[in-house]
Amino acid sequence: MTGILKTGFIALLIFSCNISVFGQADSIDFFIQNQMQKHRIPGLQLAIVRHGKIIKTGNYGLANLQDSIPVSDKTVFTINSITKAFTGVAIVQLVEAGKLKLDAPISEYLTDIPDTWKPLTVQQLLSHISGIPDIVNEEESVLIADDPEEAWNKILRMPNEFKAGEKFSYNQTNYLLLGRIIDKLSGMSFQEFITKQQLEKVGMLKTIQSGFGATKNIVAHAACSYQYQKGQLRNMFFSFPPFLQTAAGMSSTAKELADWIIALQSMQLLTQPASLRALWTPAVLNNGETSGFSSLLNGYAAGWPVVKRTDHPALAPVGGNRSAVFVYPNDDLSIIVLTNLSGGTPDVFIDELAGLFIPDMKEANGFGLSASLRALKITLDKVGYKNAIEEVKKLKKANTGFTVTEKEINGWGYKLIPQKRIADALEIFKLNVYLYPTSANAFDSLGEIYEELGNNVSALKNYEQSLKLDPQNKNAEQHIKQLRSGK
Fold this sequence. Notes:
Layout: H1 7-14, E1 18-20, H2 27-39, E2 43-50, E3 53-64, E4 69-70, E5 77-78, H3 83-96, H4 122-126, E6 136-137, E7 142-143, H5 148-157, H6 172-186, H7 190-202, H8 205-210, E8 226-229, E9 232-235, H9 245-248, E10 251-252, H10 254-265, H11 273-280, E11 299-300, E12 305-307, E13 314-315, E14 318-319, E15 323-328, E16 333-339, E17 341-342, H12 350-354, H13 371-383, H14 388-398, H15 406-416, H16 422-435, H17 440-452, H18 456-469, H19 474-485
Helix pairs in contact: 3-6, 3-7, 3-11, 15-16, 16-17, 17-18, 18-19
């Protein structure tokens, strides 16, 4: 079988294997299966920790499509940048040992670096706010030069990209330097240090056996890696040289990562609660804000992306757009989802999975909405969504602090669609156009929902208005062409 398979065949294979701790399908299994079908994920592994114990593990789909090998308890998945979370723990362990300070300039530990790098702190490296140039071309996921030594020499000559602390900019050079610091202060390679101080202490045998070589090394029971290219599923391979394996070299299982989270939270890997807080506190930029990958992953701590929010904050290491570990410290809940699809993005649905344990985290209950939008939702659930515009007028009049943005209304509308509330979504998109009549995006979304409902006349009208507001809107242009041609 080739590495290119039909989508329908993949969907069939996803449901061909499902192994659960409980021996039978439950609501979690059905949720995972639906997400796998939605995101076209070939194979997935799950572990859930609640109150310090693993309460659920699951294996779904195929680890290897070519030979129809199912995901099992033995399957190990490449975890990509989740490796950085282990590096963060290693750095904090060195802090506890008195060998390192997070706020110290890296020149105290490294001397053979450019002068412009020397004032940077360890914390700035950990949190990707250093401003130094990146040794990896992130778009291509390759070094900036074919030879590792040449890439290093090239990066030494490049200027800093911005003043330290000005912004978040994901950068693998940061973790290359952290690896060198670990090597020097621990007296061993960072691979050995992480293995001895974390993996062996937790008993992560499969992770140890897998090493740090990612997809380049031959690893027993390793899941194959896949990605979609122009709608077709293909094999995917990547590897970083040894000096960058602090950034993305490890492979593991969901169960062993769950064991690691339990050990970390129960102070088996660190000795002081203050160390755990240091590990998980997001860096603050010069403007006093935090920043990260997205509006969800809106902060970055010591190797740990952070979901910073008032309700149910989380620590959220993610890797390769394929795997994620979400730790909800206030709720004593952790969820680990590993997949073999680059683009599987489990971080977008783990919050909803957490809602099976914490009801107010369900999207249907308004979780993730701003206070103003949640107030509007509560009202519309009572009086009906056809009254959205009038109810917003009332809420604005009664509360001067009531405010909703075009982006968040748009996002709410799209969240209603998978809940099979298309009619309600239509009213929300209508509301957005009413509130933001100069937004091309609002009209574009309204056009899409009308098209989904089969109202091509209204769809065309809104796409045309979107294109009028933004002549560069290729999506609207394409849909207008299709609707006019009757296709």
